[in-house]
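Extended Data, panel c. Modelled sequence:
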Amino acid sequence: MTERAAGQGSGADPVIRVVLADDERMLRAGIRAILSADPGIEVVGEAADGAQAVEQVRRHRPDIALVDVQMPGTDGLAATEAITAEFPETAVVILTTFGEDAYIARALGGGARGFVLKTGDPHDLIAGLRGVAEGGAYLSPEVARRIIAELRGTGTEGRMSRGAAARERIGPLSAREREVLALVGEGLSNGAIADRLGIAPGTVKVHVGSILTRLDLANRVQAAVLAYEAGLVAGAPFPPAG
């Protein structure tokens, strides 16, 4: 993140730089207005398709690329894969709707760090971008439930089976690692987890790295999904550990 320009606040707060990609001009304008209303966020580039999104990221090197799933030409999923491969320092957050669940698995595999609903609360959008910019993963409760349903099946028996499998999978983790995983599931950054647990951010980073390695997870979003499956997150749609 860059520092705020001189004269715009004495604290020189870091500014989250965002590239916004959506082929619907009016929707893009609405999201830009929401983001621009926050003095800590700057929209540095816009794109109407995936290829333009990659080019805007190449030009501006933003903190976050906020990318729609369905766009003409190169879609948001291909753009996500290209951005995370070429510019790993830029986090990709996916703009989605309730009708696009089928794209979630590929977006996760492509390295997306967050999912936000186009029809969601603007405050959730801001909070999500801030969490991702700070190193966290963002899954609103609604999106988290749909991600899990898409990846794991929706029947009651299937949910119980997946919940049991998830709890068995996290069995080798230490008590502290489970605490960290639960907070990753809440979308907290390393700094926020450190504050919550009263430990050093560097220690949290070590724990997160260990969790990802031991559980063979590609990123924090997958870790968050597993935390929901295992019942570690309040309101998770799976039976809690008994």
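The first strand starts at residue 2 and ends at 3. This feature is highlighted in the accompanying rendering.
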